[in-house]
Amino acid sequence: MMGSPMTSPAPRIPRPYARLVGQEATAFRNYVSAAYLGGDSIRKVASNTRASFGRIHSTLVAAGVPRRPKTSGLRRGGN
Prior knowledge:
By secondary structure, this protein is an all-alpha fold.
C-alpha cells in the first residue's frame, strides 16, 4: 500500500520551470491535490515542492480540485 502524501516526501521540481511529463507529472499532481485537500495552504505546498504559487494553483485547477475561500482579512476578533 502506498503511503499518504503527508508521510511521503514531497516531489521536488528539479528546476523552477521544468516541464513535468508522464509519471512525474502524475505524481506531482496527486501530491499537490492530496496535500491541499488535506488542509495545507497553496503557499505551504509550494514551499514543500519548491514550486511557485502559480504552478500549484494551475495544478489544482487542472486537477479539478475545488479551492477553499480566502481567510485573510475576514472577521477577526470573535464577532
